[in-house]
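@channel sequence for tomorrow's demo:
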Amino acid sequence: MASSGLQLLGFFLALVGLGATVTATVMVEWKKQYQGKTYRVYEGLWMTCSGNERTTCEFHQYLLKLPTEVQATRAVMLLSIFISTVAVLVSTVGMKCTHFLDGRRKSKSTTAVVGGIMFIVAGLLIVIITSWYVRMIIQTVNQSHHLQSFEFGKAVFVSWVGGLLSVAGGGLLSCRTCWRTGPSESLSANHLFPTSNQMSNYV
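structure tokens (generated this afternoon):
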């Protein structure tokens, strides 16, 4: 079984990663563009905001008209959030500090591992899709011969952090070798060395 400290640390990191993923998903600053000195345009997965000091935002109304990177990133982010949410429930059942499956230690340990693996998968999905989104922005700028001044915004970094934290937390939850404080069955000193009473039986 895992030590409670490592499990709680992994679970906490994964929860923070899930929170960062949700925050990045709803943030507007996935892509930003400067037009002139003061006018700015921010594009997110759900809406676009533009303006000078005061910005006005509009939700994306037509899904099929959105760029491919926005559609794909939105779908993968939602999938990752769903997987992480299920992982929270599974990990809670399998963690040592909870009382679920107390009579079935092996099943409880396996459940924690499954929850950790789900966190790892969710985190890898986030890192991969975010990196691909950034690659698409850079590719668009290069194809326009730098006529379009698109840059990736803060949401990209929040998403990367969320993915890495989910992977780290899931790794601690699913690492069996990190958990064991000692062998399940150990030989005591009495088994290795006979006592004086036992020796007297042979005299």
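heads up for whoever presents: The longest strand covers residues 31-35.
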